[in-house]
Amino acid sequence: MIALTSVDWIAIQLTLKLCLYTTLILLVIATPLAWWLSSGRSALRTGVQAVVALPLVLPPTVLGFYLLIMLGPRGFVGGTLESIGLPHLAFSFKGILIGSVLYSMPFAVQPLLEAFNTFGRRPVEVAASLGAGAVDRFLTVILPLTRGGFVVAVTLSFAHTLGEFGVILMLGGSIPGQTKVLSVLIYDHTEAMNYAAAHQLSLLLLVFAFLVLFVVYSINRRFETVRL
Amino acid sequence: MKVLLNPLLILLVVMLPVFSQASEKMTIAAASDLRFALNDIVALYKERNPALEIEVIYGSSGKMTTQILNGAPFDVFFSADIGFPEKLYAEGFAVTEPEVYAVGRIVIWSRNMDASKLNLQDLTDPAIRRIAIAQPSHAPYGLRAQEALMATGIWEEVEPKLVFGENIAHTAQMAESGAADVGIIALSLALFPDLARHGYSLVDDALHNPLTQGYVVTSRGKDNQAAHAFARYMAGDEAHAIMIRYGFIMPGM
Question: What ipTM was estimated for this complex?
Answer without folding.
Answer: 0.74
